[in-house]
Amino acid sequence: xxxxxxVTLRPPAQVPPPLVPGLRGLLTLAVGVVLVAALYxxxxxxxxxxxxxxxxxxxxxxxxxxxxxxxxRVPSVIVAVLLALAVIGGFGAIIGTQVAGLxxxxxxxxxxxxxxxxxxxxxxxxxxxxxxxKFSHQVQDAxxxxxxxxxxxxxxxxxxxxxxxxxxxxxxxxSPLALxxxxxxxxxxxxxxxxxxxxxxxxxxxxxxxxxxxxIRLFGSSDLHxxxxxxxxxxxxxxxxxxxxxxxxATFGIIVGVGLWLIGVxxxxxxxxxxxxxxxxxYIGAFISGIFPVAxxxxxxxxxxxxxxxxxxxLVAEPLFGQVVEPLLYGxxxxxxxxxxxxxxxxxxxxxxxxxxxxxxxxxxxxxxxGRHVDSLEFLDxxxxxxPPLTPVENFYQRMLAGDPDEARDLGETMLKERSLSSYYDExxxxxxxxxxxxxxxxxxxPAQLENIRASARSLVEDFxxxxxxxxxxxxxxxxxxxxxTLAERAHPKNEAVPGQAPSRxxxxxxWRGDAPVLCVAGRGPLDxxxxxxxxxxxxxxxxxxxxxxxxxxxxxxxRDLDVTGVAMVCVSYLDITGNPAHxxxxxxxxxxxxxxxxxxxxxxxxxxxxxxxxxxGREVGADVYVSSLREAxxxxxxxxxxxxxxxxxxx
Length: 652
Prior knowledge:
Elements: H1 4-9, H2 21-41, H3 43-68, H4 73-104, H5 106-121, H6 124-155, H7 176-206, H8 208-220, H9 224-263, H10 268-278, H11 285-289, H12 291-300, H13 305-329, H14 338-352, H15 354-373, H16 378-384, H17 392-401, H18 405-416, H19 421-442, H20 447-463, H21 476-479, H22 487-491, E1 518-522, H23 528-541, E2 546-549, E3 569-574, H24 582-594, E4 600-604, H25 610-613, H26 615-621, E5 625-627, H27 630-643
Parallel strand pairs: 1-2, 1-3, 3-4, 4-5
């Protein structure tokens, strides 16, 4: 066994000093700059790889379908890639044929445009043009006179003007190799990119499981569950986005093509395909694709009816698809905020040009998924995701702290559309008041701010006085218990409304027939009275009268004067109890002396301290029942009214 001297002489482990915060920020900035530069200068390498990855997401379901019909892995991949190649080649052939036909009719369109502008020049446009030309001639004459005066003053009366000399520029002869490069270069480069993309897609589809396992090993072998969830989330979101967008954009292109054909615009097939492709660019792509058909309509039709009809087609179809059809079909499937879509479109468009515009949304989806599953990258989800930046509890506390009960009520009414009032009080309001009480205990909330919170809480309870504690009328859970939970439900799972109602007053025990059989006593915390007011309101909504008294009414000096007429149960509310709850024990002793035989229920919002949930300590403190939610408190009061022949005292 080593002696103590040997242990003390052992050199301590060398722990590297932590990075200075400023140095860490500079290092992060440098890494970001290097990454952006690599993406920009290496775009010729990255773009084919990224296109291959995204195309593999699109072809993945096709490969799975072919494998289900027992075609085999390799044949399924080859058939899917050949199908994609045929679709791409078909679209390329259509676009090439349509462009060639459009170019052949260009001289005719040019004549029509010239006639149309000639007609405009004979009207108000010609009058405006003549006014502008007259003004331009006047400015030009004044400029020439000033230049002539300056020249004569510089050269003098005997100055000779130098004679102009003819200069001839002769271009070198073009070699056959340079000519071939000039002609075939624009064609060879896209074909090369397509070939690289297809080859990479084949390997990605063949090695999907192996690549997935390698990614798990590389990034998350220590937490397989979390890494698998992250990869499934990314694959699901990207797959949903691409399939939905592909279907919606193809439908949009078909509608545009058919509409232009009915209007009479030439080459409607070309513009339908072009509109479908451009709609991958968020917000502005569809409207940009409408510029060319509108211009072509102006070149074809001698009048303006075709131009107006073409413009109306795009102005109606795009808002209809973007604001009505898409939200109904797949909603916010990408999980991105509109601000993130705009910024990512500008960023990737700057880096990679037109391809970047199309790839902007998928890239940003991947970043948001990383932010949701990697703690160090959470800022990406906050900046780019569609989740609210603050939780409902934080929103509630922030509005209370600012003394803005109107906005707090607006947020509450929004949540009450999907949950009951008791659930809202338990899951949002009480937890928000708990944050305020904790901050006040730490000294970060001033007395003025505390008074704002109190006033806002009182106002909020008064605003919901007429709101029943029932499940919302259109609640999905009532119709489909397996429905996907909303974001608010995932952050704060909602409870059902209290499933009970007190019988009529005549059916209640004699001790419970008063106007306020439940006495809600506020704890000595700064915001306990607000929680007692919420409890009293819920009790009234379920048929039991209740009144609220502050902590001072049950102090040592004033408890003898407390009006206990008709009290059958006492509820004491505490938002926070820290350390030894001796003051609670003494409070319960005073209440039991003042109300002998009345049962006591203590409510600690939200979940009570473990020291009080322990059975032995609970008996020592003196309460009969402990609850940790308003729902439990209301249920306990209803049960007491139904079964107890005499009054009960409840501390909540």
